[in-house]
Amino acid sequence: MSASFERLIDGIIDALQSHVVPNSSDDFVRGQVFSAIYALNGLKLAADWKAGPLLEQVRLQDETFAAVKRLADGMTHPEIAATPRIHGDVSDAAAIEALRDDGDRQLGQLLLWASGEGARAADRDAATEIERLLRRVICDQLKIELATTPKSMLQQIAGGDGGAA
Amino acid sequence: MQEAAKRSDDVPGAVPNLVRPAAVNDDAVRTALAQHMSRISGSRTEITSFGRKSSGFSWITYAFVARADADGDRKLILRVGPPNGLFAPYSVLPQVYALQALAGSGVPVPALVSSAQDGAEIGFPFFICEHIEGDVPAPWAASELDPDHKRAIARQFIEILASLHRIDPSATPFASLHQGGERAEVRAIAGWRASLARPTARYYPLLDWGGRWLHDNCPQPPCRTIVHGDYRIGNFIEHKGRIAAILDWELTHLGDPHEDLAWAMMPTFNARSRKLYGVLERAEVIDLYQRISGIAVSDRSLAFYEAYALYQAAAIQMCAVRAFEVDRFNDMRLAVMASQMPSIVRAFERALEAAA
Question: Contacts of residue A28 in chain B, CB cutoff 8 Å?
């Protein structure tokens, strides 16, 4: 993120905090303003790193696909993506996001399969291990997203009261 | 049952088949409201002190004073279901049925004044009820209120819930809303699963898998009661140490009473505390609830509904994201809700582990 972009967001936040909030006694209006401040803070955190966390999630998914393929060897299972899915230096965040979302769908299908009766009947131990692996990895993916999530302001947003960002 | 409330479509002269506006315009609502109030009261009514209130993420809430020669000033509340809101398309029926069925019961509710599902006059589904004096406590705040005061309110809160669950639903209009072969509580899970499966919603593998688990493992209810559906700190009005009214009945349905109990005890609604309102221990809540409701609380069912509460919270967040991004509902609070998804989904996974 460029310094001017960061400065722009800081300026917007400052204007809202300094001029809009003190001059509004309407709870609904204040809720809107605090929400806007929150969204701007999120943008500031995520903008610089948008491709970074997505790439990290795709790589984590790829490692998981490879591990599931090994564990499910000999079992009939849903399609598992060939890895790695990204070659070379990719910086198009939208393309990486699409890969991440596609990976999520495949992880979901594998999780439903591993926790279903068919997989259990075929190899209970392997199915259980795959289910645990998938649940852990999906939670790890969520942790990556949490790192670019600003601190909650639910109190201010809902009620339009309290301190600012 | 309350008889004073009027349905717009019952009253002669209502204008049918209006083309609905695409968004709610406050000035237009105010003008239409004056016409509506004049018509149902039978005398010219002026609307004063009209303004939006912050509360609620779904229905748009207005406070106003209806000034008429015949009745003097009446402080009232108007709630309008926007066409692009969180749970659009809206039905006034759950709220109208609740306010009608519970009037005069042990569950305090605002008196219903008027309602219309077709929304012909205002342009959207709406209902009007009496204004109740008092304050709405903020569920997310680490409140500065005296702990003894909070304990007294928390106990009332549970006593009222127990009273709600003691009501025989077959004697209320809710019975007519819920017919068909599938269990009501299973149908509710199926509804949220369908909502999450909409193509515009981002896919979360744990929600897909967890939704199936909830559907397959939904416990039999000890009895089927009226379930408020959003029973939590923040959805009532408190006045002079008493809970004067329980609000927000839009998600009301028939189901397992554990659902309300689990929702009320979510840390999200209790300043991140495991104690109700930050003061009442879980064991005390359950003991009080059981004594007054006569319903035995099952640890297993409660754990299930604690997981379900997080699943429902996630689905509601996704409704908010959709309302903002797809339906262009311009409330910045809805946009912010998307960022809560990772933490809610992780908490859901842990709750499922505990319930399994």
Answer: 52-54
